[in-house]
Write a structure and sequence with these properties.
3-stranded antiparallel β-sheet; single chain; 4-stranded mixed β-sheet; 11 helices; alpha+beta
Length: about 325
């Protein structure tokens, strides 16, 4: 059976719908409260000398209404706002009703359950459009790869998961990911393209931590073939389409980068890269960091979407609370 090249993206519609319903309900409550305090009467508008005059009609004033002078224009504004609020409230109530009916009938688990309910003998032969979370995580975590070698004389720093890393700050990040049950790969190789605009800095970039260029990239990409990240024939963690096609057409140089962490958002089945830059008070280090960031952007990595970074200096080390807050926002 031919492998599915791109799977049906993980269904994240239901949380969005529920969030929108909550937003509409909150606005509905606020509008209802404001309408209960709004002034009575009908606002009539009449052209006058290139401008407008405003009148407030009530049972006592008759159809045309009582003239609203300039100093009481806030009354005209309050009545106009009341009329607008009443109309938009009706539309918000209609939208909320439609979304609630949609949520009631929308079953996001159909595709996942269909695969999970297959007999094991059949399931082993099928490539589903959507994997159940547990299966997807298992397959993603089982991908074999070769990271970067450690200096034999370097410090031995171990994470709670029992793997060696290169800094105490990386221990903070790794352990935070582990505590939250976020799957990650340490220094997993990604094959990227280096644009001609960066070629002048390719040597400096190659010297930067975690980057290999040209033939070294191909030699060290290993069996994982670096950045392809296929999970059972299904492409995981897809980046944006922008940039890479044009870069290939221009014959750009291939490089392999080893981000500190390649993480999986289990809820969306999408990957994101986490880079920690630990010496941004060193000018040469910052130059390499800028080149690396430019290359990430050219290859479809977007800050806050599929790429995050943390930084520190000698005087301002990584704050573990900041890492926790970032993870709360990300997943």
């Amino acid at each position: 059976m031919e492998n599915v090249k791109e799977h049906l993206p993980k269904d994240c519609v239901l949380p969005l719908l529920r969030g929108r319903i909550a937003d509409l309900s909150a606005v509905e409550a606020a509008l209802s409260k404001r309408l209960s305090r709004a002034p009575a009467g009908v606002l009539n508008v009449s052209p006058h000398r290139g401008g407008f005059q405003y009148f407030r009609a009530t049972a006592k004033t008759g159809r045309k209404g009582e003239y609203i002078p300039e100093e009481k224009m806030s009354l005209a504004a309050a009545i106009a706002q009341r009329d607008y609020d009443a109309k938009i409230l009706t539309e918000i109530q209609r939208l909320r009703w439609v979304l609630e009916k949609c949520v009631e009938k929308y079953d996001v688990s159909i595709a996942e359950n269909l695969y999970a309910q297959l007999h094991p003998a059949r399931r082993s032969l099928v490539t589903p459009l959507v994997y159940p979370d547990e299966d997807f995580v298992e397959r993603w975590s089982a991908v074999m790869y070769a990271g970067r070698d450690f200096d034999a004389e370097g410090p031995v720093l171990m994470t709670a998961r029992g793997e060696r890393v290169r800094s105490k700050s990386e221990i903070i990040i790794a352990d935070a990911l582990f505590r939250r049950g976020i799957p990650y790969r340490y220094e997993y190789p990604h094959e990227l393209l280096l644009a001609g605009a960066c070629d002048a800095g390719a040597h400096e970039l190659g010297a930067a931590r975690g980057v290999e260029t040209s033939h070294a990239a191909r030699d060290n990409a290993g069996g994982a073939r670096a950045g392809r990240r296929d999970v059972g024939g299904v492409h995981a963690g897809r980046r944006g389409a922008g940039g890479r096609g044009d870069l290939r057409a221009r014959g750009c140089k291939r490089v392999v980068v080893y981000p500190d962490f390649t993480c999986l958002n289990v809820r969306t089945h999408q990957e994101f890269v986490w880079e920690h830059f630990g010496m941004i008070d060193v000018p040469e280090y910052c130059q390499n960091m800028a080149s690396k960031m430019e290359m990430y952007l050219q290859n479809g990595f977007c800050m806050g979407k599929n790429f995050v970074m943390t930084t520190e200096t000698h005087d301002r080390p990584l704050n573990s609370m900041m890492v926790e807050k970032m993870l709360e926002q990300l997943v």
